[in-house]
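Table S2 (text version). Query chain:
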Amino acid sequence: MKDFEKVIDYKFNNPKLLQVALTHSSYANEMKDKGVKCNERLEFLGDAVLSIVVADYIFENMPELPEGELTKLRSSLVCEKALFKFGKEINLGDYLKLSKGEKNGGGAQRPSIVSDAFEAVIAAIYLDGGIEPARKHILRFVIPEINNRNTKPFKDYKTTLQEIVQKNPGEKISYRLVSETGPDHDKHFVFEVLLNSNAIGKGGGRSKKEAEQNAAKEALELMGY
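Corresponding structure-token output:
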């Protein structure tokens, strides 16, 4: 465990939390007469902490993303495939406590086991030190993953539409608010996108930026792009 603390750059005040986080249910069942706990409850908590940290980061740092794209991006960063990749980066499987059968069967490299343990470690850090150490640990993996992706998770429809229109001198794109409804904490906006003075698309969203993006998206679809 001391080696693993160095790998994740976090020293536990309560090492028992880390011990449980690294204990698979197969090992706990094998040692049930000794009262060994597995990491399943920590996995449950870690999943929630992971989700809120990732959601908060992409919400704050990607203000142009509409709700639908935020959801897709978050899902891709917290899914089993992504967590397994993160776990392999720190050789998490090498530190897990597995039953003899699970170990011999390659459990240390099984995506479901490694990804679950990754979430359990997050929960252990959160319980031991609070949200900030947990956030630091999570973003260590998430930020490079976002930066290293070859394709942008979000399509900027407004920019695409502007680039198309600019090919025709004299044409001008603008956006007009059509409606604004709902209470302050749950607003819904509808915008039209205008080519000169003619409406060529309409879209709604929970923010003005999202509504404008959706209006531009509809315009592009109607134009055949």
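Notes on Table S2: The mean pLDDT is 90. The CA atoms of residues 177 and 191 lie 5 Å apart.
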